[in-house]
Structure prediction request, 161 residues.
Amino acid sequence: MTNLRIGHGYDVHRLTERRRLVLGGVEIPWDCGLLGHSDADVLTHAVMDALCGAAKLGDIGKLFPDSDPRYAGISSLELLRQVAALLQERGWAVVNIDATLIAQAPKVGPYRPEMEANLSAALGTDADRVNVKATTEEHLGFTGDSSGMAAHAVALLKRLP
Prediction:
């Protein structure tokens, strides 16, 4: 049996007015937020999908379908805690996570330490195992014209003894 597994996650959400912007569990003051069934935290969704892929749990659409009213407006950190519980039940622990937010604006640098702390706390792991980066796409595409945001994440898991 393999003792290490890697997974990749990707998520995207449209920006819209009259929604709060939540990234990595941090509410960021901005004139738009992300559209989605839950809190639409694109960064946390990418992290969850990376973890699900590494542990062969499917994806967040399978685990938390947007057709289920229980997940309407739910905090994505709560969903991440549920993914962490599934990982533990199946004998997996997080080695590390590397996530990248792709957005033209707002600048999220000041919020990154809190995002990393939120993600690692929801996973029950050390903060030094979670890295969050951000980049723009130089005004190209849907992220560059500020009609949406995207995130990628890579997760490495190890089998618990």
